[in-house]
């Protein structure tokens, strides 16, 4: 038996793909082997057949029809046949993510075919090469003992089909007829994080950018698009297996093609309902465009509404607060300037999208196990109404880390837990969520679930937000400005509170004193093509931020240009699954990306150009007086840190599990700092050049810091890599010295 193995390194989802020369799979239908947890969440006998409309249905005893009994099947999109008593128009997904040690094996009729299955008759004449149809992907069977059907994950992915969603430790097996020659399997799939499109190879060929020796290769487009992923499967292979390592992988279908053929047509997007459109001209310099905008929204009919701002300047003198679903604000002038010039003093914001506070709160009756997506909460606990989304929260728990024992607040290791997720299906066993919480939560911390009533469909496109403080541009850098309207020094620009699926695109912000964009207690927020600079206040205590995330779940900041500012992006107060991608951050007074020492977790900082600030990326920041550690799993990948950074990456305050991979450190005073008890940090495949001093610093009692497979241009021996204080733990291996 030979294998094709590819491992996808994941932040939220990774998957392994294995092609096997195993003739045993030729005699019957393949299976989806779900190795995920909680096999007792559904009856073991509940199996579901997944196949395309053209696929041959399995026979009653589980055997596949002969290959020549079905028409050619060029494209397979997983779909669900009627089996279990569930919603009829939904697709399957894994019920829970944490592996179950006592998971029951699949029912016999869902198992792989026996290895002694009879091979094809040896005297069967093969068809002529030019007339042979391409090998088919055979029907797939899903064992519902470990998975269940669910609908698409709503508008976040804007997907036209239902999908098979795999959570961590679950597997999906595609099987096909024995391949007479190498073929390309186009897997139509989507993953949550761009990070999940990075893979390493074991040396076998693959039709991907680069070759098998390349350390990285992308298989998906930016996070907002679907992408077919081409995989070269060797001759004779009969199956390909995908395994989710973390989070969610969505599979929409698969197709076998000749390697010389063009790629399949892209996935078509589902057209959204046309909104009611209102064209709003400016009311002039002597009136309040804020009041006019508020009145238009109040008068608009029920349903989606788009307000088109056609003039070059709108002056808001009172705040705009939007509490209705599906509102788009679109600027059509180049630029469309929204000037914030408030009449009354007091901390406020120019434009706020605000959902209502959560509804009923239901306690869990047992510990929450890391990775599980099923919550044993009866629907009747929510008054019989299935919520669209919920948040899982708990009291703070764990010990106070040693560096923070003398702090102002009691900073327990796990705190500020607020994990939001969509509800994708319900059953007698409880709610199934679309994203698992990857933390163990003890029953003693009172874990509980709250129904959300978040605001949906907020969109802001093509606006230039400016506070009435042009003096901020002319001040000495990093000095508070004396504004013509002093109140804006304490004000925010654009605020999202308790929203789901908010989008910001082609927006700029200038001169706001606090947060130019503020996201709180919101799910699935995307900020793309965003430009921010020159805040009117860089002062202490939350001033001068480009983007501030608080209790935010699954947020993306992409293609942003931020600076000068105090911080470019701050990830704060238990935020999770935050991505900062493909952006440029310059001239920040403190850390450009500040994971702010308030138990946030699962942050991805990738593909950014960062030059300036005390740290390019700080994890476990904010000091020990009022802050402490962050949660686990932070990735710093493929960034460039310029010479204006005092420290490229800093990990502090007992924060654990950080990955620093494939970055370029160009001339920072210290490229990477580990201090105050931080540890379990992996530093791999980075390039350190033009180092001012020793590139790494490990403080007393910190570590381990694993430094592997890096390149150091100016350092010619291991002894010159790091300053290690007493009790620091540095572990080196296979680094290249004295480059280039």
Describe the structure.
The structure is a single chain. It is globular, with a radius of gyration of 27 Å. By secondary structure, it is mostly beta strands. α1 (289-299) links the parallel β15 and β16.
What Rg do the Cα atoms give? 27 Å
Helix count from the secondary structure assignment:
2
Structural class: mainly beta
Indicate the mean pLDDT.
74
Helix content: under 10%
User: How much of the polypeptide forms β-strand, as a percent range?
Assistant: 35-45%
Shape: globular
Query: Which spans have pLDDT < 50 for at least 5 consecutive residues?
Result: 1-129, 139-163, 192-227
* Number of E-state strands: 58
Amino-to-carboxy terminus distance: 42 Å
Main pleated sheet: 24 strands, parallel
List keywords for this structure.
740 residues; mainly beta; 24-stranded parallel sheet; twelve-stranded parallel sheet; 2 helices; 2% helix; globular
List the helices and strands and how they pair.
Blueprint: E1 3-9, E2 15-20, E3 31-32, E4 47-50, E5 91-94, E6 140-143, E7 147-150, E8 164-167, E9 171-175, E10 183-191, E11 198-201, E12 227-233, E13 239-244, E14 248-257, E15 276-280, H1 289-299, E16 305-309, E17 313-316, E18 320-322, E19 327-331, E20 337-340, E21 349-354, E22 361-363, E23 374-375, E24 389-393, E25 418-427, E26 430-433, E27 448-451, E28 455-456, E29 459-461, E30 464-467, H2 471-474, E31 492-497, E32 499-500, E33 503-510, E34 515-520, E35 523-533, E36 545-550, E37 553-562, E38 567-572, E39 576-581, E40 584-586, E41 593-595, E42 601-606, E43 609-611, E44 615-619, E45 634-637, E46 640-641, E47 647-651, E48 656-661, E49 664-666, E50 670-674, E51 679-684, E52 687-689, E53 696-698, E54 705-708, E55 711-712, E56 722-724, E57 730-733, E58 736-737
Parallel strand pairs: 3-6, 15-16, 16-19, 17-20, 18-21, 19-29, 20-30, 21-31, 28-32, 29-33, 30-33, 31-34, 33-35, 34-36, 35-37, 36-38, 37-39, 37-40, 38-41, 39-42, 40-43, 41-44, 42-45, 43-46, 44-47, 45-48, 46-49, 47-50, 48-51, 49-52, 50-53, 51-54, 52-55, 53-56, 54-57, 55-58
Antiparallel strand pairs: 1-2, 1-11, 2-13, 4-6, 5-7, 8-14, 9-13, 10-12, 10-14, 22-27, 23-26, 24-25, 24-27, 25-26
């Amino acid at each position: 038996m030979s294998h094709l193995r590819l491992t996808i390194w994941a932040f939220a989802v990774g998957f392994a793909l294995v092609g096997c020369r195993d003739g045993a799979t030729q005699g019957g239908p393949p299976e989806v082997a779900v190795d995920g947890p909680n096999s007792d969440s559904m009856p073991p006998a509940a199996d579901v057949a997944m196949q395309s409309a053209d696929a041959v249905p399995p026979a009653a005893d589980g055997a596949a029809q002969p290959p020549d009994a079905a028409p050619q099947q060029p494209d397979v999109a997983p779909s669900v046949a009627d089996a279990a008593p569930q919603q009829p128009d939904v697709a399957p997904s894994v019920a829970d993510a944490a592996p179950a040690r006592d998971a029951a094996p699949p029912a016999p009729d869902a198992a792989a075919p026996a290895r002694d299955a009879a091979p094809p008759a040896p005297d069967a004449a093969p068809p002529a090469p030019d007339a042979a149809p391409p090998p088919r992907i055979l029907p797939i069977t899903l064992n519902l003992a470990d998975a269940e059907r669910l609908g698409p994950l709503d508008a976040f992915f804007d997907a036209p089909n239902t999908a098979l969603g795999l959570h961590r430790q679950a597997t999906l097996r595609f099987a096909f007829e024995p391949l007479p020659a190498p073929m390309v399997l186009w897997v139509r799939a989507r993953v949550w994080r761009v990070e999940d499109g990075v893979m390493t190879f074991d040396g076998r060929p693959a039709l991907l950018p680069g070759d098998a020796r390349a350390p990285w290769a992308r298989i998906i487009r930016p996070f907002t698009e679907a992408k077919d992923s081409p995989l070269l499967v060797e001759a004779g292979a009969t199956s390909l297996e995908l395994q989710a390592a973390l989070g969610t992988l969505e599979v929409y279908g698969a197709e076998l093609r000749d390697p010389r053929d063009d790629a399949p047509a892209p996935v078509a997007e589902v057209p959204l309902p046309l909104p009611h459109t209102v064209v709003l001209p400016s009311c002039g310099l002597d009136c309040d465009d804020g009041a006019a905008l508020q009145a238009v929204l109040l008068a608009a009919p029920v349903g989606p509404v788009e307000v088109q701002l056609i003039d070059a300047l709108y002056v808001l003198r009172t705040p705009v607060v939007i509490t209705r679903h599906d509102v788009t604000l679109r600027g059509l002038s180049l630029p469309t300037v929204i000037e914030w010039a408030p009449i009354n003093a007091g901390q406020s914001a120019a434009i706020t999208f605000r959902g209502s506070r959560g509804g009923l709160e239901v306690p869990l009756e047992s510990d929450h196990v890391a990775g599980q997506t099923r919550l044993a909460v009866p629907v009747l606990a929510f008054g019989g109404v299935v919520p669209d989304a919920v948040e899982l929260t708990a009291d703070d728990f764990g010990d106070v880390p040693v560096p923070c024992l003398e702090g102002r607040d009691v900073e327990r290791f796990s705190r500020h837990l607020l994990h939001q997720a969509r509800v994708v299906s319900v059953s007698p066993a409880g709610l199934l969520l679309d994203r698992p919480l990857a933390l163990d939560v003890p029953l003693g911390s009172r874990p509980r679930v709250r129904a959300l009533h978040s605001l949906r469909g907020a969109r802001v496109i093509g606006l230039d937000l400016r506070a009435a403080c042009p003096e901020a541009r002319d001040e000495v850098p990093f000095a508070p400005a004396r504004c013509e309207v002093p109140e804006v020094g304490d004000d925010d620009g654009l605020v999202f509170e308790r929203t789901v699926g908010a989008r910001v695109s082609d927006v700029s912000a200038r001169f706001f004193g606090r947060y130019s964009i503020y996201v709180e207690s919101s799910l699935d927020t995307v900020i793309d093509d965003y430009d921010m600079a020159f805040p009117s206040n860089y002062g202490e205590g939350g001033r001068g931020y480009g983007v501030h995330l608080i209790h935010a779940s699954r947020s993306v900041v992409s293609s942003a240009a931020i600076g000068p500012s105090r911080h470019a992006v701050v990830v704060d107060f238990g935020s999770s699954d935050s991505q900062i991608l493909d952006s440029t951050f310059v001239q920040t007074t403190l850390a450009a990306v500040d994971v702010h020492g308030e138990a946030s977790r699962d942050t991805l900082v990738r593909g950014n150009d960062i030059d300036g600030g005390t740290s390019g990326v700080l994890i476990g920041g904010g000091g020990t007086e009022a802050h402490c550690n962050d949660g686990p799993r932070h990735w710093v990948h493929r960034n460039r840190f310029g010479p204006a950074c005092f420290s490229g990456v800093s990990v502090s305050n007992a924060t654990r599990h950080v990955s620093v991979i494939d970055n370029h450190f160009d001339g920072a005073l210290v490229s990477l700092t580990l201090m105050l008890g931080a540890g379990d940090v992996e530093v791999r495949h980075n390039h350190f050049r033009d180092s001012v001093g020793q590139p790494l610093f490990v403080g007393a009692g910190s570590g381990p810091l694993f430094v592997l497979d890096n390149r150091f241009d100016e350092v010619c021996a291991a002894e010159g890599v790091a300053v290690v204080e007493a009790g620091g733990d540095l572990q080196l291996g296979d680094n290249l010295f004295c480059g280039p």
